[in-house]
Design goal:
By secondary structure, the chain is an alpha/beta fold. It is built from 12 helices and 10 strands. Helix 2 packs across helix 3 and helix 10 runs antiparallel to helix 11.
């Protein structure tokens, strides 16, 4: 009816209009207020969801910026405990140690990786002496220690020797466990290494040490800034890791890798990288129901930081949105260089 210029009688109810333009279900009702949005939120992010990757290097009183990763630093063993203390106070349960090894200490076999007083072991001891109640996770892989930048031992033709590499990884895991490491994380993608490491740990009295396996680690272009941070970019050069890291086109293969690692004794599993592989995290979690983690790798971190520093994006909002994506995909937690910054933001509310 056309408007006749008269105001509708306030006591008279408006006619009920039916049809698709006036639905009884209105999704926006639950979004109308802040308290309602919080009440109906499906996934929650807390500091307890984070594992903080932290870089260490030789030296004294160092907090050395990593150029390719704005906001990230390398610490010497005498400063790393203070950095870890901040993370612990924020409620972050675990830190993951990655070493920058001086070039003159590297060799083809990565022999320093199995020396009991190497940089990683000294960092573990320093952290545990100051903060015995925080978890310490360590990679088991050779790429930071080898002169060629690969994750394994090479033969004369440059091929990775799988079983010889696994033997070295077992020794590396044992010295890290002896130093006080709580979580061993084989990241090399050699076949059979989870079972071998589990057996070695159990045989030497470290049955309590957990294994968080890099079960589905892809041959990704997103690792570039990390390789600068640990000093393997110059040694690896243009060489490919495609013979042991996974093809980015494959997801069924990831489920096979995860199944093998679980059967060999992994306590937790990981997908790496993170956001480009959220579909893999979802499939792994749905299939196995295991504690499942995603690694928000250096390239993901640096892209967000670069966008924020250039004013192209809201850095804090993109950081939190990206971390929530892992939880939404089914991850129990996230390894992220944003851990401390995100935990501070969560604490502020």
């Amino acid at each position: 009816m056309p408007f006749n210029g008269k105001v509708r009688d306030a006591a008279r109810p408006a006619p009920i209009q039916a049809g698709p333009a006036f639905p009884t279900t209105r999704m926006r009702r639950n979004r109308r207020t802040d308290w309602s949005r919080r009440l109906t939120q499906e996934n929650v992010l807390t500091p307890a969801d984070f594992i903080w990757p932290i870089f260490v290097r030789e030296g004294d009183n160092l907090r050395e910026p990593v150029e390719a990763m704005p906001g990230v630093a390398r610490y010497s063993c005498d400063t790393v405990a203070d950095a870890v203390g901040e993370a612990k106070d924020l409620g972050i349960p675990v830190v993951a140690i990655f070493p920058f090894i001086e070039p003159d200490l590297k060799d083809a076999g990565g022999s320093i990786s199995t020396q009991e007083d190497n940089l990683v072991c000294r960092a573990i001891r320093a952290i545990k002496a100051a903060h015995p109640d925080i978890g310490v996770q360590c990679d088991v892989a050779l790429d930071p220690f080898t002169s060629h930048g690969h994750d394994g031992v090479l033969d004369e033709n440059g091929e990775i020797l799988n079983d010889d590499t696994v033997d070295v990884l077992c020794h590396q895991a044992l010295i890290q466990a002896e130093a006080g490491c709580d979580v061993i994380s084989p990241s090399d993608m050699m076949d059979g290494r989870i079972g071998a490491v589990r057996h070695a740990l159990d045989e030497h009295g470290f049955g309590h040490v957990q294994i968080l396996a890099y079960s589905a680690k892809y041959a990704s272009a997103f690792y570039g800034p990390f390789r600068e941070a640990v000093g393997s970019a110059s040694t690896l050069g243009t060489a490919s890791k495609a013979t042991y890291q996974m093809n980015p086109a494959n997801t069924d293969e990831a489920l096979r890798e995860v199944a093998l690692d679980i059967a060999e004794g992994a306590d937790m599993v990981m997908v790496k990288p993170g956001m480009p592989y959220l579909d893999v995290i979802r499939r792994v979690k749905d299939k196995f129901g295991m504690p499942t983690y995603g690694y928000q790798v250096s390239g993901e971190y640096s892209m967000i930081q670069a966008g924020a520093l250039n004013g192209w994006i809201d850095g804090e909002r993109c950081m939190m949105e990206s971390l929530m994506a892992f939880k939404r995909a089914g991850a129990n937690g996230v390894l992220s260089y944003f851990s401390v910054e995100a935990a501070k933001l969560l604490k502020r509310g």
